Amino acid sequence: MSACVIADALGLVDLWAACDSSPSKRLALLVALTELVEDQVLRFPKEIADELAVVDRGGHLASWAAGLGSHLNSFNANYKYNLPLMQYAKELGFEEGFQSLDGKDPAVVAAGRLACEYSATAVEFAILTGDLGKAPLRPTMEQLCDHAGWTVIDISSVQTLFDIS
Q: Rounded distance, CA 44 to CA 42, Å?
């Protein structure tokens, strides 16, 4: 098992979608995820919570992530790790780095920067992502993971590792 799991918004959405839709199962999942974040086993920067507010607008998952507040502060990577992340983007053919239609950095930048920091500081991690395939304006998390040699885990692995469903 990895020491921690870095999740992106789409990975969390996929995990939520894989959960039994009964209210008791969904509540149990949120309780389990909260404990994992508090124990720093499940990690994601605040930008991921902000992205959840968009992709799960008004949903339980977005509300849960917004409620984590200061627990997410320790998952903000040092900005000096933008340099290796931008180098990965360039090597993947995205000369301009990470672009978005609204002109802001997409949340994948914050998660990727955290992965770069953990790689540089020998923190063992895996990535839970639903950001797969290719995108026109930026590399996907899957592309970054493949290029950087970061381990990607799937929903069933997370459910098994954390004994959640």
A: 7
Direct distance between the N- and C-terminal alpha carbons of the chain, in angstroms, rounded to an integer: 18
Rounded-to-5 percentages of helix, strand, coil across the chain: 55, 5, 35
Please give the mean pLDDT across all residues of the chain.
91
Q: Are the C-beta atoms of 127 and 145 separated by less than 8 Å?
A: yes
pLDDT at 87 over 80: yes
Domains in the chain (CATH in brackets) are 4-162 (3.40.50)
Per the DSSP assignment, residues forming a β-bridge with 128 are 7, 153
Give the residue among 38, 98, 91, 41 at the shortest CA–CA distance from 69: 38
Q: Taking every pair of C-alpha atoms in the chain, what is the biggest distance, in angstroms?
A: 47
CA pair distance 114, 111, nearest whole angstrom: 5
Q: From the CB of residue 154, how many other CB atoms can be counted at a distance below 10 Å?
A: 15
